[in-house]
């Protein structure tokens, strides 16, 4: 039962990242397009570009998370929180 809950939590979090990245809106919620994009990513990760691609995507993701946190912090200060 715990494994199932952990898996469900992981799937929800991953879905949230898809939405956060704007992919749902950018594809008009086209599941085939999203799946095709993910297959392209998987293909790149199976090839010679794996190390470079992962490093690039990780840097971009970290910067985006940091920018989001900074914006939330700034918003809180502007609201007097």
Question: What does the model show?
Answer:
With 81 residues, this protein is mainly α. The protein folds into two domains: 1-46; 49-81. The chain is built from four helices and no strands. It has helices spanning 2-20, 23-26, 31-45, 50-78. The termini are far apart. The mean pLDDT is 94.
Task: Kindly list the characteristics that best describe this protein.
83% helix, mainly alpha, 4 helices
Written as H for each helix and E for each strand, in order along the chain, the element string is HHHH
Identify the overall geometry: extended
Which blocks of ≥5 consecutive residues have pLDDT under 50? none
Mean pLDDT: 94
What is the total domain count?
A: 2
- Using only C-alpha atoms, the radius of gyration works out to 16 Å
Sheet of most strands: none
- Assembly state (oligomeric): single chain
Measure the end-to-end span: 39 Å
The number of E-state strands comes to 0
Q: What fraction of the residues are assigned to beta strands by DSSP?
A: under 5%
Q: What is the count of helical runs? A: 4
* Structural class designation: mainly alpha
Approximate helicity band: over 70%
């Amino acid at each position: 039962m715990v494994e199932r809950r952990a898996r469900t939590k992981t799937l929800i979090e991953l879905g949230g990242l898809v939405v956060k990245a704007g992919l749902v809106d950018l594809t008009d919620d086209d599941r085939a397009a999203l799946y095709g994009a993910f297959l392209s990513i998987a293909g790149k990760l199976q090839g010679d570009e794996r190390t470079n691609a992962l490093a690039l995507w990780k840097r971009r993701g970290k910067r985006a998370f940091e920018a989001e946190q900074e914006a939330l912090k700034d918003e809180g200060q502007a609201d007097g929180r």
